[in-house]
Amino acid sequence: MSYEKRYQFWLNQKDLDPKLLEELIELNEEQIEEVFYNDLSFGTGGLRGLMGVGTNRVNVYTIRKATLGFANYLIKNGKTGGVAIAYDNRHYSKEFAKEAAMVLAAQGIKSFLYENLRPTPMLSFAVRYFKASGGIMITASHNPKTYNGYKAYNETGAQLSPDEAEQVIDEVSLIENPFEIDYIDNDLIQYIDSSLDGIYLNEVEKISILDVKKDLKIVYSPLHGTGGPIIPSFLKDKGYDVYPYEPQMIVDPSFSNTKSSNPEEIEAYEETIRYAKEINAEVIMITDPDADRLGIAVKHNNTYELLSGNQTAVIELYYILSEKKKKGELPQSGFVYKTNVTSDLIEVIAKSYGMQVETTLTGFKFIGEKAELNKNKGTYMFGAEESYGSLVSDFVRDKDAVQAVYLLSEIANFCKMRKMTLIDYLNEIYAQFGYYYEYTKSITLLGLSGLEKINLLMKHFRENPPKIKGKKLLSYDDIDAGIHIENSLETKLDYPKSNVLKYYYEDHTWIVFRPSGTEPKIKIYFGTKGKSMNEAMSYIQILSEQIKLEIESL
Q1: Domain end among 433, 459, 478
Q2: What CATH number is given to the structural domain containing 339?
Q3: Domain CATH number, residue 525
Q4: Chosen domain end from 433, 455, 479
Q5: What is the mean pLDDT of residues 152-156?
Q6: What distance in Å separates the CA atoms of residue 264 and residue 388, rounded to the nearest whole number?
Q7: Is 387 assigned a catalytic role?
Q8: Pair 133, 186 in one domain
Q9: What percent of the chain has pLDDT over 70?
Q10: Angle (nearest 5°) at CA 103 between 98 and 105
Q11: Which of 55, 294, 302, 482 is buried deepest, with most CB atoms within 10 A?
């Protein structure tokens, strides 16, 4: 069906939501094409997009359609354990979660629906706790306030694998009329109250390695999201001196008191840094709206320095392995997981302690999938991706900022006892293993024309591997083709098919080109190793500028 016909079909619906009808009538021709040219599809983080009218937007009808497709997938595969459902602070998140539960109920599928907003890792935990067949998290993670989304989970508590997601998409595509989907509110919808919080937090508590006196002042912000009801009280119960930044503790879908809902962006820290200066806090911790990502700023030499996702992951992993080794608690067979855009230093540290390392594509669902496959082969030790997400213990199977906050509070406290900061600790790691530096450049390209530009860029770099200053190209991965090429020889990659390119150069230098699965962006990742951090950073700056100029010339 053409976008014009889709538009007319929606316009002719007598019971269309009044707000959406008003929006529909006001669309111009270009906007009509934009919101109807396609259906939202599952990416690395599930279904995610701008809220509004149309098949290419998140609204009650696309939520119902996705849920019916998910329900039909579960039924066809004999998965009868029900579905856990949670939601974040965004506009319509609570309503969308209830709509999903009602669509499941109409298909005879029970649901376990959180009464109040809760973090994504707690949704993963609920799937496992209730032995459900799947899960749904209504969230757009760290995206701007105009977005919402729908993460779908399997019975292991991990996000759907590509094969599973493809089956759901196939089911969704068979649904011709989203306005004829049944939904009902009945006793198949079971509500999860706050009693599950304590059960989850008891598991979080077990990740602690050293139980010592707490002497650390922490500023915390949930950025108006789901970490607020859980994290500050838990840290206080464990003896930490926590100062929640109250203006951002308010559950607010408009994110009124922060310039950014993304811990990867410096703007997200402006207010908490100001507050930390007032009270002389040593660490600032902020979680994204669904509390699966953690950002940190550390007081060091009288200024607050931000750590990258790679750096926090390196600190976590080194602390876990080094302190467990001191206690004689390292397993004979342990697994560490990282993505192919995460720092090489993760693998270097892990292997130095005798751990096996598994590298996956971007998206924590791949780490969750690998953890499930390896659960009888050895002990899960740690998993991380560069975008501020980690998982310390796999009693959940998605990245977990609640665990990360707790462990990094312990590490910061441990450092303070040694008269160090987390920055000092990180520098000790670099001095031991080498100066690894990573940088990510995101280019936002909106709309249909943006998608065409992204495709053009990927085609160009697929046909023209970057020639970079001072480093020989050693090999590259074309993950869409499923091949690794080295010395003109092709070998098969053990990755699912994905439109990703990775180029490997001398001196642990690499570049990855990857269109985002959940945002209108192409992301370019850079990594290298230098004799000093300044050398590594300077080289990446030169490299980034070179790639930028090449892109601008296209």
Answers
A1: 433
A2: 3.40.120.10
A3: 3.30.310.50
A4: 433
A5: 97
A6: 7
A7: no
A8: yes
A9: 99
A10: 90
A11: 294
Structure tokens at 397: 């199977």
**Tens-digit pLDDT profile for residues 102-125:** 999 999 999 999 999 999 999 999
How far is 491 from 318, CA to CA, in rounded Å? 33
CA distances from 88 to 136, 139, 186, 221, 391 (A): 11, 6, 23, 15, 20
Q: Cα 326 from chain centroid?
A: 32
Average pLDDT over residues 371-382: 97
pLDDT of residue 520: 75
Average pLDDT for residues 47-52, to the nearest whole number?
92
Q: What is the largest CA-CA distance in the chain?
A: 69
Looking at the fold, whether 149 and 215 belong to one and the same domain comes out as no
Residues 63 and 118 in one domain: yes
What pLDDT is stored for residue 205 in this prediction?
A: 98
End-to-end CA distance of the chain: 33
- Alpha carbon of 292 to those of 288, 302, 416: distances in Å? 7, 29, 26
29, 13: one domain: yes
Q: Which of 93, 111, 124, 141 is catalytic?
A: 141
The domain in which residue 145 lies consists of 3-193
363 and 399 Cβ atoms separated by less than 8 Å: no
pLDDT at residue 93 in the model: 98
CA gap 291, 400 in Å, rounded = 7
Both 381 and 408 in a single domain? yes
Residues 53 and 79 in one domain: yes
pLDDT at 41: 74
- Residues 283-298 have a mean pLDDT of 98
